[in-house]
Amino acid sequence: MKNSDRMIRDRKMVEKAIARLTDGVMLDLVRRAGTRAVADATGQRGPRSKGSYSDPTAAAVIRRESAAVADPIFDAVRDISRLLDEMARMSMKLDDLVRFVQTGKERAREATTERCKSCDRIVECTPADRLRSGQCMACYQAQRRAKTQEK
Fold this sequence. Notes:
Elements: H1 3-19, H2 23-32, H3 56-67, H4 72-111, E1 114-115, E2 122-123, H5 137-150
Antiparallel strand pairs: 1-2
């Protein structure tokens, strides 16, 4: 499979998954997972045995921890929320990268072409054709020859 085919397939898979998450579906998911399910933990109330220690705060924490039950819908909606947040950040990065690739060629071309200040020739700024002191190679060498002849 070519790289372009794989990228197209991946984009279609993401579009298909996102298409199912309409505003109505999102509202329904949040409504269904509004609160985490808890077990009915009534705890032991009544007289304590001789020498027992009564700590209402610790008892409340223990009751709350023992009341936690598996709630797959709440966990699934929480995971969906985290994944959507990550996808939003990734889509912003993807958009930046696509914009860079599409406009980068023009910017790179503009940045690597300059004009010689002596003859106004366009210099590509490559290793074979580069600016030296703002001049093309021919003007630069002519100027150096002129300076050595003056001495």
